[in-house]
Protein 1
Amino acid sequence: MTTHQEPEPGNDEAVATTAHGTTPAVVGDPIADPGLPPHEPRPTDVDPHAERRAERQVATLFGLSTLFAILFVVSYFVFDVGKNPTVIAGYGASNVALGVTLGLALLLIGIGAIQWARKLMSDVEIVEMRHPASSSEQDRADAVAALDQGISDSGIARRPLLRNSLIGALAALGLPAVVALRDLGPLPRGDLAVTVWKKGMRLVNDVAGTPIKPSDVEIGQLINGEPAVFFEDKPNGEPKFEGTRLNDAKTKAAIIIVRMKPEDITPPKGRENWGVEGILCYSKICTHVGCPISLWEQQTHHLLCPCHQSTFDLADGGKVIFGPAARSLPQLPIMVDSEGYLVAQSDFTEPVGPSYWERG
Amino acid sequence: MSTTTNGRTAAKAPGNDKLAEAATWLDDRVGLATLAKKQIRKVFPDHWSFMLGEIALWSFVVLLLTGTFLTLWFKPSMTEVTYNGSYDLLRGVKMSEAYESALHLSFDVRGGLLMRQIHHWAANLFIAAMLVHLMRIFLTGAFRKPRELNWVIGSLLLLLGTLEGFTGYSLPDDLLSGTGIRAADGFMLAVPVVGTYVSFFLFGGQFPGDDIIPRLFTAHILLLPGILLALIGAHMLLLVFHKHTQWPGPGRTNDNVVGYPLLPVYTAKAGGFFFIVFGATALMGGLFTINPVWKFGPYDPSQVTAGSQPDWYMGWPDGALRIMPNWETHLWGFTLSWNVFLPIIVLPGVVFTAVLLLPFLEAWITGDKREHHLLQRPRNAPSRTALLVALMTFYGILWEASGNDLIATHFHLNLNYITYFNRIMVFVGPVLAFIITRRWCISLQRADRDRLLHGYESGIIMRSPEGAYAEKHLPISVDEAYTLTARDRVELPPPPGEVDSNGVANRKARGEGLRWRVRNFWFSHDIEKPTRTELEEAHHHAEHELSVRDDGHQHLTESGYTGDYELDGTPADGHQFDGRHDISGDELRKGH
Ligand code: HEM
Ligand code: FES
């Protein structure tokens, strides 16, 4: 069998193989290595027509890619963006045209290049020898010697005073690095335990900000509510809460107001007069990890969190009856003010939202 | 065309002179040729499964390109503005600048929506490709010495890629992403002792504050991509240094690597593949909507959309969160939220650490200290394969649990029962998966062994004079037989007690005893490849069978009726597979 071995230019470890048995057949277990099979020429290697055809094919792919790149530019100027994102099955004409032309322009280059490699570039496999990842024993010894030499020249082993004071100085540099980050945020000082609710603050509808009378709430109904102060202005006409400050406050103060038949309700001890004619008010923020809760089953008085399906029984003090949340939904004690509107008796009596270490 | 580099006239062409000049100029200064001469024709082996890592690499490049485009318009700010852009339904609504700029990108920048969608599709692809790539590395044993460090780097990439995805998902400040950040705040608060501080430092005070989007932005476009890039660079350097693993086969040994050179074949294939990945994500970005933030509205801490689902890769910890029992401990005035802390902080940490340590765990069990450059078929490492499938099952059940509400509504099942089922399955499922997979692998090993010893099933049904039918087996080709046997034998050492025959008390005996038991468990059911003697015997036996004349008697051996009768006559033409003719020279055999 002819063995044609020619070292690869530059890469002495690699040889091109054109025939059987380039690697010495090792004694196999239990079968001897038959060696690389001979190279089988492809049609494009032996048939000039096939070769020409493959060449034309690849060139066509590249040509089409250019065409789609141009079409991308055309689409860019032809199609309007934005105004109507729903044309073409909801995808937007501009987006579809740009995506398809760009996608095809790219894909055709990729397919062309791979086709070129498969059909026209040499497919003779090359064998390259491996070496152990480790260095030679000699190199290791030399490296250790160099290291020792360097260390001994520095005198770091002989001069513990220098070594230790340097270690100390470097360690001390950690302090500025950490302390400089101190102003990332204020320390938590019980802020999580209080909300903007206070005695006498009206419960209002979360969209329009209208105050709510008991007669506005039907049995079985759920109203998404907020404290009235979110809709009030300062004397200078600016809202009292806006932007991120509004969001900060809302995160803790959002509520839901539900009305059930008074006889269905079993108030926990001490909360007998926290409601008004079967109207109860709870925090809207799930005690699990803080999603706003909204799914209300009026038949069962269950409130379901859409995030991880914790379920709270609002007729039973907001107790958890299913799911990963551990704590009952905090209840806001309410009453009616002199004008007959629902107002808070006080702030929440416990922190709302997710548990945290200092919560107790 | 004087500037083209036509090989035949290279030396004369002025363009080439210029090129050579430039190369000389560069080499005079950086001495690149010494390095380049080796690497330009570096050999890479070929196999479809080697493409998975490439998908991950190229989708990362797509993320860099599209992400940079997005930064040109995206405004990482939580300042409140009133929307005034092209999208009618939100005009006049108050929102953060971040959300407004995401809308601006989607509706007022031509190609902006496309880039957002390519970016998001590529992010999902990036993480999926990394995960599947990791599984292929594990299943084929490519993580073994000397490649353990690349496994560690790869696991870190998966972790950081997930974080990068989460920070990106959070940037547009729409209702969904805000809900995700809110949950992340809840996770932080559940960390004992320091949780509240971590949360306040990250958010610059209470959630949501106005710092979180700018901070996530810095992490998303600078910090994490920088680390990812450095790790990917190290990953590639190690790959080049170790040279790629290859599948065993004729001429492909542990000491060589057989394949195509970097230039031109691999350059064309891998480079072309970049365009394919980019092109495919571009098509997806053009044709399939992803994260239509305009439909969700701006973030409002009192609003939520039902059935909101995070990106797929956040699913499994979310599932763990959903099926966790609601344990919480109150002690000395402090609260410990096991219900959040265990599934979302501890569990991912433990799983990640376990994944990171898998190569070292396996090396400890097998005690193998050799270098491995040949890949193993999953069936030839039954316990390892079974371990991965067990891990996948664990992952899969948690992932499915994160869609428990969808399952409940789609299949009209009771949510409670689904949850109880998942709580049990998350423990039982992986064990079952382990047992089944290992059995399966072992049967496949047995099938390979049979194929080696008795040949392949030729599809020729032979009828004996008594009327019994049997299928003819023919020997497989040497190449195939070699490939099937190109794997290590397992050598189980004797129990440690017996090793120490000189009676000296072995201090490490207990550790070694455990290790011996684990190793025994790991390997003891594997089916070995036949030895040379067994193989020769089997072949001899088959020849003997063939040489016995058809005398009207069934050939009964210990293993039962073999159905082998003498084959004689002329090469088969398609009508002679009747067992009466010699078909040793026919096509059917050659092909195998
Ligand atoms: C591994 C890398 C990356 C991953 C997994 C990733 C993931 C994501 C995801 C999931 C989004 C949400 C997209 C959406 O709006 O639907 C996003 C947004 C964004 N990403 Fe990345 N990203 C990566 C790298 C980068 C890089 C390198 C940059 C910039 C240099 C970048 C810049 C951005 C910007 C500006 C946005 C917000 C734009 C918007 O949502 O409209 N990303 N990223
Ligand atoms: S946030 Fe409500 S169940 Fe998790």
Protein 2
Amino acid sequence: MEQKVQSKVIAANYMHLQFPSRSENESLARVAVAAFVTVLDPTMEQLTELKTAVSEAVTNAIIHGYDGGEGEVRLHCALKDGTVEVVVEDDGIGIEDIDQARQPLFTSRPELERSGMGLTIIENFVDEFFISSEPGRGTRVTMRKVLASSETLN
Amino acid sequence: MQIDKEVVGGVLVVRLRGELDHHAVEPLRDEIEQSLENTHYRGLVLSFQGIDFMDSSGLGLILGRYRTLSSRGGKMVLCEVNANLRKIFELSGIFKVVPVFESEDSALRAIKEA
Ligand SMILES: Nc1ncnc2c1ncn2[C@@H]1O[C@H](COP(=O)(O)OP(=O)(O)OP(=O)(O)O)[C@@H](O)[C@H]1O
Ligand SMILES: [Mg+2]
């Protein structure tokens, strides 16, 4: 019974972070998410995958969304039933063709030595992954990763 | 991001340290390119021993240097890739493009024999 109460507390937890689109904030974002999920006691592999996925989404917001210029990136995290949800948002240029963007090796910026793997990495490193975007308005990437089975929590 | 560079028998050895993300990669790229020019593009060993995090920016760094060396007839190999990086290496197919060795010694030997 004691632990059931605790899992409800965990389910209600959330965190928001907003920061300017500066590349040094890429590590801030992934370390913050890693610290946020510590309560679920993830494996090293799960943590590496989650940090990599967050890093990809935040880097995309900075490089593509704001084209290396000024802007704000917002990160929302929530924990529910052993699953973490991370949302990365920018108010940048947006994505015209999301299906094309999600193709492995597709990049709009080969001259910056991008290899078009970021979204493919996210897709493989988390359990659920959506993109919504409006050209000229911005992009929102939502990912969910199961970090603990519901049995472990109950 | 710290790196440690050494030239062994004309071949540039770069030992990376820290987290290989977009923030780290940008200054690193120019530094490695400069050292490659100084060593006449003979060869490059990139050691990942000190790297515990890498994302697609690291892939871009590897593939970019691979392109530089290929176009100038030099060889490039990687070594000491730790378990944390296995999955991103496998997913990207980089294993198929650039050879990966266990140790720096075996990496250097492979370049010299090539
Ligand atoms: N936040 C964003 N805003 C605008 N465009 C984006 C955003 N995220 C992704 N894109 C578009 O989707 C493409 C694919 O993204 P992806 O992360 O897969 O590759 P990349 O960033 O180009 O290369 P890599 O991630 O391998 O460095 C980008 O080249 C860009 O055109
Ligand atoms: Mg990307």
